């Protein structure tokens, strides 16, 4: 099969290439998915799991990408709950070959059935961003109706989903970003938008929840904005500054079939939408890792043109 593979670790994105790889093996409780659309995280070439397996063994050349939407092509021994030919989508394991390929092996428990009226390109943009937003808001921050939440990077892949989910649950949403992102933020359900420059923190005031995807000084300054009893949640890095009389949580997203099924229903009903920035064929996927070619929204790699 054709796949994007890594080269030398020191080369990073410059070492990526489109090459031939062996068809994946379906281990026990695995599914082989014929990839129709896939997504990746720009920084994943810096993740340890991209280069070594869970036992610490080198696994290069490896296939990047950890979000998939496609068709079940094969079931591993003991796999139940899915059938060959079924449309599915979901995240894949960090320490296994990923989704920028024609086929990928995925643990069946990570995959959720995909409705026929949801395009693979749209679905591939949801697993990591959607689960990260859900878990940050509701599992870790326990956001509830009537509370206020500040979402940094509100127009990004995670922030855009978080804004929609927070708005739907009845929270007051304040989004941050660049000035050009104001209209997009308001369209996503933000009640207010604050540009991240100058005295931005003073413009926000106190909130019940801060959801950070940026880190650094933005994360440091956000600690002062969390009111007593509130929560500062970040996926960027462990907080260096703790909020007074409030919690601070750094987390890494985890697969969750029930949560992803809920997100799929929202996607299907139109109450949730993903932000797709560009759609490229597999042959052009290497170029998508170049920062010069980054676009707003999620870049999707389309492997198959249609069902």
Automatic annotation (TrEMBL):
Entries under InterPro entries matching the protein: ADH-like_C (IPR013149), ADH-like_N (IPR013154), ER (IPR020843), GroES-like_sf (IPR011032), NAD(P)-bd_dom_sf (IPR036291), YIM1/Zinc_Alcohol_DH_Fams (IPR050700)
Pfam family, one: ADH_zinc_N
GO molecular function: oxidoreductase activity
Residue ranges of every copy of the Enoyl reductase (ER) domain listed in the record: 12-301
Superkingdom assignment: Bacteria
Protein name: NADPH:quinone reductase
